[in-house]
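Researcher: Quick test of sequence recovery. Tokens follow.
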């Protein structure tokens, strides 16, 4: 079911330098990032971005270093001002808002979870968790119960009196998430929030986020450079290169339908069996077919391979909570494991 659009990003351009407005016409007429730097000593951060961020979904924006993903997320709460374009929140262009409305946006509507935790070292875990409400003028007795509740939700019951330096990185990041949740903001911005964590802790944090999201249905914008993590989290995936969108859409669709050779190379090292879902490659039944067994629509292809024990003759009925929705045969599964050459790719032969 399609949800309503919470945030719309409409044609923002961001040029870093001493005279961004003066060189904007050159960018609008097609000047490349390299030529802009060489000819005008300005850096092109974003070019003509268009994204609809849907309410209650996780939108992951990713790309290589320098692609513009961290620049883009900071436009959503105007920590960075665009050179041109619009950012709409609930249909209103926040670029027209004054400082008072922007402060209210950052305190009440959007929370942010940072890569480096950004906890106040002289404040306890409880006070850090309640920081958003504290900045709104809420006294301690007014935010304490909410902060304790969210600390409990992220597995930190009993940590309230500790200070950040007494905590591991994984626990500090949990405090950051609790702080974002205590603010009661409907939109959460997460800038590489798990990247500083060890792999096992990062996996645990991914699980925690998905568990919380299944209950809370926040609108989450997550900046990532790790494709495996993005595919686990994203409802909508946006891939940037040099400040521009190369492809965006449902992650399964991007995996099966890369837009160009760059995307094909970008996803080339992914273990497709672990991330592709049955629902993405199933088909409709044809006549009377002998069914070997049933599988779930969201099962991975790796799971199906294990269930089939490698038997290519297996034919599975695909079901979800409403009942049967399709069929999956093993030859179709095997073909899906082979990356498809994108349109326009040049053969190596």
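Model:
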């Amino acid at each position: 079911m399609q949800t309503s659009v919470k945030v719309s990003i409409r044609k923002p351009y961001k040029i870093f330098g001493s005279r961004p407005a003066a060189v904007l016409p050159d960018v609008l007429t097609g000047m490349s990032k390299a030529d802009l730097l060489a000819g005008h000593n300005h850096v092109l951060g974003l070019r003509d971005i268009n994204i609809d961020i849907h309410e209650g979904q996780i939108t992951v924006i990713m790309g290589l270093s320098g692609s513009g993903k961290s620049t883009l997320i900071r436009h959503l709460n105007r920590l960075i001002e665009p050179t041109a374009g619009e950012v709409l929140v609930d249909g209103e262009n926040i670029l027209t808002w004054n400082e008072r409305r922007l402060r209210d946006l950052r305190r009440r509507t959007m929370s942010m979870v940072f890569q480096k935790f950004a906890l106040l070292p002289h404040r306890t875990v409880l006070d850090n968790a309640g920081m958003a409400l504290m900045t709104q003028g809420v006294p301690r007795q007014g935010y304490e119960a909410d902060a304790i509740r969210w600390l409990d939700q992220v597995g930190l019951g009993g940590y309230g009196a500790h200070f950040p330096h007494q905590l591991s990185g994984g626990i500090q990041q949990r405090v950051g998430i609790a702080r974002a949740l205590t603010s009661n903001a409907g939109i959460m911005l997460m800038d590489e929030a798990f990247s500083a964590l060890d792999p096992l802790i990062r996996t645990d944090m991914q699980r925690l986020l998905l568990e919380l999201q299944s209950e809370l249905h926040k609108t989450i914008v997550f900046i990532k450079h790790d494709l495996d993590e993005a595919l686990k989290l994203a409802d909508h995936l946006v891939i940037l290169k040099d400040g521009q969108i190369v492809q965006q859409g449902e992650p399964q669709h991007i995996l099966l339908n890369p837009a160009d050779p760059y995307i094909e190379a970008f996803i080339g090292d992914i273990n497709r069996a672990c991330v592709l879902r049955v629902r993405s490659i199933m088909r409709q039944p044809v006549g009377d077919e002998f069914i070997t067994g049933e599988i779930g629509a969201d099962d991975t292809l790796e799971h199906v391979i294990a269930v089939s024990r490698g038997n290519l003759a297996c034919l599975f009925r695909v079901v979800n909570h409403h009942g049967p929705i399709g069929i999956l045969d093993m030859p179709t599964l095997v073909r899906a494991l082979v990356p498809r050459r994108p349109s326009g790719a040049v053969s190596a032969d």
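The radius of gyration is 23 Å.
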